Amino acid sequence: MTNDDLLQGAAGPEPHAPRRANFGADFLWGCATSSYQIEGAGAEDGRVESIWDRFAATPGAIRDGSSGHVACDHYHRWPEDLDIGRDLGLNAYRFSIAWPRIFDGTGGRPNEKGLDFYSRLVDGMLERGLQPWATLYHWDLPQWLQDRGGWAARTTVDAFLDFADAMTRRLGDRVSHWITHNEPWCTAILGNYEGWHAPGLTDFGTALQVAHHVLLSHGKAVPLVRANVPDAKVGIALSLHPLRPASTSPRDVAAMERHDGLRYRWFLDPLYGRGYPAATLAQVGDAAPVVLPGDMDAIAAPTDFLGVNYYFPETVADAPGHGPLGTRLLPAEGETTALGWPVAPQGLAELLARVDRDYRPGPMYVTENGACYDDVVGADGAVRDTQRRRYLMRHLAALRQAVADGVPVKGYFAWSLLDNFEWSEGYLRRFGLVHVDYATQQRRLKDSAKWYRAFLGHD
Ligand code: IFM
């Protein structure tokens, strides 16, 4: 079934609109956020510098020269933000924890003020009927750890376990759902090979060592979370893309396979006990990571769920000499978001079905899905983000299809609740269902938020 098929066959402007009743009564409906992108309060209550503070201060690193120092001021405005989540009818909320609020690198105990903030935040979620989904690492590594080698250093794995231990001890009586890492591919490749995310490094071998330590820290954290959290549900969130070859030529098809080896199997194979894919290991040559005995078993610790972050399919062409694997991504054709990302709802169903078929990961959750558009606040204060509303509706229609086909998807988190700091794009890109006026910090529901609220039966 094509994307167009999903929209055909019914009268009216929103044919085949999905309904909440198409999903199980226990299905989770949430929004996702991350600490550095929304919290602000960059120097409050003992928070220390993160790699994103340092990177953002580098001239030219962030398109609008901004940083997350104030962001959405969620650190102070979280009651209002959680009220919005409740009023939309969400039953779950995904957030991440800023490691630099918890450990300052002096070797002392965790910072009580940082722990207290997340404790209050979690209480606020529970009071509003929002099931808390905590992500331990969404990219804001303390700078003091980067100064000691960052994720390329094996000692960062131990530091992560201390952090995971502190957080699960403090919140484990109220938070059952834990995501160890968000999008390890981005941590490794965007931050350490492509250099357009913090810490801004450009070495492929470093990136693969980073990926290995991130996966290792995940695997070692799984039993630790279970030990500290009664009835823990622990998993990881990967950013995954369905792939298309640029043409049917054997060269492009082979290029797509190589790309898939690094983008998809490099992470999923070890998580599900298969080790690093042999063909990709051979292709990366000397850049392969140092792996110690026992690492691969640790990485393959059984999990309770897999988080899938879906945005768009990638089209791959053979490009000898380009990048570590001689591949190149082609610009999108057809409908795109303001970031040039293809709009392809059917890719979500295709991706979930593939992961289920390839790995049988058990319950899956769409832990991120969303779109960036150039939203405008109208004279009447309304934000008519028709494209995002349609994006959301069409992706939920695709999700409905995946569920109907028997793919064990149990929840959906829209990215994002609020407009926020979009990493190296700064505040130029808006992904929120809720508009944020950064000058006044006023929040306004966009039409997409109103559509989600109606979908959830909370009108
Ligand atoms: O904003 C990011 C998020 O932090 C991680 N996943 C993709 C989103 C949109 O780029």
Automatic annotation (TrEMBL):
Which principal EC class is assigned to this enzyme? hydrolase
Can you provide one Gene Ontology molecular function annotated for this UniProt record? beta-galactosidase activity
Enzyme Commission number, as recorded: 3.2.1.21
Q: Which InterPro entries match?
A: GH, GH_1_N_CS, Glyco_hydro_1, Glyco_hydro_1_AS, Glyco_hydro_1_beta-glucosidase
Q: Where is the active site?
A: 368
Q: Does the keyword Ligase apply?
A: no
Keywords noted in UniProt = Carbohydrate metabolism, Cellulose degradation, Glycosidase, Hydrolase, Polysaccharide degradation
Alphabetical list of Pfam families matching this protein: Glyco_hydro_1
Provide the reaction this enzyme catalyses. Hydrolysis of terminal, non-reducing beta-D-glucosyl residues with release of beta-D-glucose
Record-stated family: Belongs to the glycosyl hydrolase 1 family.
The protein's name in its UniProt record: Beta-glucosidase
Whose protein is this, by species? Telluria antibiotica
